[in-house]
Amino acid sequence: MNTFKNTLNPPKILVLGFALIIVIGTFLLTLPFATEDGKGLSFLDSLFTATSATCVTGLIVVDTGDTFSVFGEVVILSLIKLVG
After folding, report:
1. Which three-class secondary structure state does DSSP give residue 81?
2. Are residues 16 and 23 in contact, defined by beta-carbon separation less than 8 angstroms?
3. Is pLDDT of 35 > 90?
4. Where are the extended beta strands (E) located within the chain?
5. Which residues, 6 or more positions from 64, have their beta carbon under 8 angstroms from its beta carbon?
6. Residues 17, 79: contact at Cβ < 8 Å?
7. Model pTM score
8. Model confidence over 8-27: pLDDT tens digits?
């Protein structure tokens, strides 16, 4: 019997997909060139921002226009468009 097929049902795939997208977005937002100052965003702020963008809640911990570079803004926009 293939037990892997039985354990990976559609709701689990959906949750894993969201989690994977959030992890990728978090990683991209921590990169130095994602912010205007070139230091990157802290892990917790990146995680919150990526989760908020993926779930399309619109919550922010830093000002998006002042903090993120064009690359960071494109990452956030991509997260919104990809899942939202």
Report:
1. helix
2. no
3. yes
4. none
5. 73, 76
6. no
7. 0.86
8. 888 899 999 999 999 999 99
